[in-house]
Amino acid sequence: MAEPTPFLQAAGSGGTGLYMLVGTLLIALIGALLWYVLNQQSAAISSQSMALASGNSIHGLTSAQRKRNNAIVVVGPMGAGKTALWTRLRFPDSATQPETQTSMSVNSAEAHINESKAYLVDIPGHQKYRLDRDSYLPMARGIIFVVDSARVTETVRTTAELIYDVLANKKVQTNETPMLLLCNKQDDPMALSNTRVKALLEDEIDKLRASRQAGLDSLRDAHVAASGAAAGGDDDDAAADERTSDFLGYDGKKFSFEDLPNPIQINESSLVLGHDMSGLELIESWVADTLHS
């Protein structure tokens, strides 16, 4: 049998090396893909477990959640102390209280407060959770709005906008859902009293109300002009309905929380886990009274 030429020997050894290189790359690629898939599945399982542990529904509110009549919804701007309050009410025994940080998801669970069973919902303050907030507000028996009393002068606009959105919610208005305005972080030397916080928010909501109504009036006028006289009456009615649902207080009178149909109570608190939580008894009493009203 003839010996292979040096050229064929080189080609054969080079082909074998190429095949080995391609095989190694394929094995590495398959391994990387398997690692990615397994990690994605692990992350999904972990997220689902956390949601189930906190009592959340992964695919939105369940029918059982929608039928609840004992929901206390905790809302407010970021960093105000909502999760600290939710945790303290949820875990009254300090030994079982987990450490808290800014919430990245909705927290919800049953809790026993002053011999009353409440369904506590903590909505993160970021605007991206607006749809979650609007989903829970219609089922709220009571709303706790937490304000950072030490930073309210810096955040008064965003805080007022959030309060306005909550109180202008049609279901909140129709149900006349009571609200506890909680002036938190009173342990901070920079904290303002509840009287001062209330005055600041009323002034800002009054300005906000004027600007919102001016925008609605402009939108109504534009619709009427575009629709013509034949459809103008319908547009006027729709705009009037929107104005009624979005307007807080009395037209021609400076905004005041006392003018709202919703019962508004204002308390001070200092909610720091692991320390004396000033104002907690008043909060628990308000929750129990609200659930029994």
Question: How would you describe this protein?
Answer:
There is one protein chain. With 293 residues, the protein is α/β, with parallel strands linked by helices. The chain has helices spanning 6-53, 63-66, 82-90, 130-136, 152-167, 170-175, 194-227, 229-246, 280-292; strands spanning 71-75, 107-113, 116-122, 140-148, 179-184, 264-268. It has a six-stranded mixed sheet with strand order 2-3-1-4-5-6, sandwiched between helices. Strand 2 (107-113) and strand 3 (116-122) form a beta hairpin. Helix 5 packs across helix 7 and helix 7 (194-227) packs antiparallel against helix 8.
In short:
The protein is of the alpha/beta class and 293 residues long. The chain contains nine helices and six strands.
Question: What Rg do the Cα atoms give?
Answer: 29 Å
Q: How many strands appear in the DSSP assignment? A: 6
Helix content: 40-55%
Main sheet record? 6 strands, mixed
Helix-and-strand structural type: alpha/beta
Query: What is the average per-residue confidence, as pLDDT, rounded to a whole number?
Result: 78
Helix count equals: 9
Low-confidence segments, given as residue ranges, are: 5-11, 42-59, 235-244
Produce the secondary structure layout:
Blueprint (H helix, E strand, L loop, with lengths): L5 H48 L9 H4 L4 E5 L6 H9 L16 E7 L2 E7 L7 H7 L3 E9 L3 H16 L2 H6 L3 E6 L9 H34 L1 H18 L17 E5 L11 H13 L1
Parallel strand pairs: 1-3, 1-4, 4-5, 5-6
Antiparallel strand pairs: 2-3
Helix pairs in contact: 5-7, 7-8
